[in-house]
Amino acid sequence: MTTIAVLPGDGIGPEVVEAALPILDAVGVGWAVEFGEIGWGCWRREGEPIPSATWDLIERADATLMGAITSKPPREAEAELPADLQGTGRRYASPVIALRRRLGLYANIRPITDLYGADFDFVVIRENTEGLYAGYDYRGLDDDLWNLVGDHPGAVESGRDDTAVALRLQTRSGLDRIFRCAFDRAAAGGFTRVTLADKPNVLRASGELARERFDAIAAEHPEVEAHTANVDAVAMQMVRSPESFGVIVAENMFGDILSDLGAGVMGGLGLASSANVGGRGSLFEPVHGSAPDIAGRGVANPFATILTVGQMLAELGAPDESARVRAAVREAVQHGAVVTPDLGGTASTADAAAEVVRRLG
Questions:
Q1: Residue 7: predicted pLDDT
Q2: 3-state secondary structure of 271
Q3: Which CATH architecture has domain 1-109+272-361?
Q4: Which residues are known to be catalytic?
Q5: Is the pLDDT of residue 91 over 90?
């Protein structure tokens, strides 16, 4: 039997996960779910945002569904540790990044679909492990980094202790696998165009490597149109003519920005789902954060989590059930009578989810 590790997390995470889980029963897949802890509460209690028991659960499950995670800056994070752990050098690290790295989940898949009509339907694929978010971010530079940037006018004026450098990591192996993922997803989804969104006219060395590998992988897929475009131009076109895209693939930071822009084009983060795939297992999460300002009020939009469950169904071999979930959410959004305040309605989290279950029959 397929087993899903369910990690509700923080803030509105438990609310939207509780509302969305009945979808699995409504479509009749018969999967088992096991709950685990993750996030800020674990950090405050034991100084680990992912307890060892949760890692064990994730390792034995077929996939992981996560609600939302709270993150705070280092000073605030340490201040909320138990007294006996403060001053011990513990540093809060993003559980999502830890999960992606440990499980090798190098691709973040973000569907961008017009739920109010049928004008656009495309996918943003964000590379998860490299790019500007790879973690090579330094303040107070050693000799090697200072030799690279020390002659910049700003660095000369500021000195090495007040100069910071972030490095964009691009590797052939990392690029090849994310581009293969993009073209494979295009073929599987019936898309005829893959666009690499980058900035090769400015980031000349790393951008040229990306473009070379993109062209090489594109040559393996002559049936798909391949196009490289500046990321700022892609952003503008996403707003003006989103129907012109099929699959957009980008490095970590550019993909992060474009996928959130796509959520805005859809109608908001309350409609945005995501999947992290590519290694051992898979991780599914709504794109929105933990939203502590509305946590506990029962007004969080559950549709992003429900669509995430739908995406999980497709990834785990239940495409018909996935299509039913997407259709039910689309009907609920278009009807508009039972939607949460972020979509202009007055419904509660529970009532909005129940409306989708009702439409599933």
A1: 98
A2: helix
A3: 3-Layer(aba) Sandwich (3.40)
A4: 133, 199, 232, 256, 260
A5: no
